[in-house]
Amino acid sequence: MHQTAGRGDAIKHVFMWPAFLIVLVVTLFPLIYALVVSFQAIRIVPPLPPRFVGVENYADILSSARFWGSMWTTSVIVFVSVALQFVIGFALALALHHNVPGANLYRVTFLLPMFLAPVCVALIARMIFHPYLGPVNDAMSGMGFGNIPFLTEPNLAVAVLITVEVWQWTPFVTLLMLAGLQSLPDEVFEAAKVDNIPAWRRFRDITFPMLLPLSVAVIFIRLIEGFKVIDTVFVLTGGGPGTATETLTLFAYNEGFKKFNLGYTSALSFTFLIIVIIVGTAYLAAAQRVMRRYA
What we know:
Blueprint: H1 2-37, E1 40-43, E2 48-52, H2 56-62, H3 65-97, H4 103-115, H5 118-128, H6 135-142, H7 154-182, H8 186-194, H9 199-227, H10 231-236, H11 248-258, H12 262-294
Antiparallel strand pairs: 1-2
């Protein structure tokens, strides 16, 4: 028995370690190579030989007004859209959990945007908000407001991007929060009803605290995913007008695939990674303090 178990363990390691090493190499090599490149000046067009420049790329990034502008734009889109996604998604999950009329139809309908490719969603939004052919401007003209430059006025363009993000990813929040609501024990709520506790107090004192860990996780996922937004912005506004809607990922794309400035782009990518880590760490620390209050 012991010999058979030992032989089985040996065979397990024979199959496991090569796969583990391959995944490790495939994952770490591009990361380490990009880190090395971030300390060099490398340009493909026109071709220039690699030249070590130390932290010069990072210094140029931190002193770039365009970088801070894209950082501000990304932050506005992410934080506003994620806040709206959570509030609307939680409200929809509560409505569906309480079996409003037509709940089954709503569940299917609300989930459809999440299954569409972001590029398709951006193309649809681009047609909807077209200054001359879009139905939104047709309605505005019918009400006497005239054509509104939704995609060419900076603040309106950012608002459209937030709207598109909310429309597409609110179903994700709804799905997870609905699953959380359905997993809560019914006995607690039945006891609260027997004690004649109002619905808003049941939500404040029972539902929300019990779903707080799930809420923290859902918001964290959407924050991290939101910072990576590029396809919607690229198709809908292209970062314009000017660079008013340029996000960090689109900024890196423009530097890497249009200017072919690989060293600067690698440094920009690692700067972006550090920002996401800082934001995520700060959020989790704040969330832990909030959860301690409800513990």
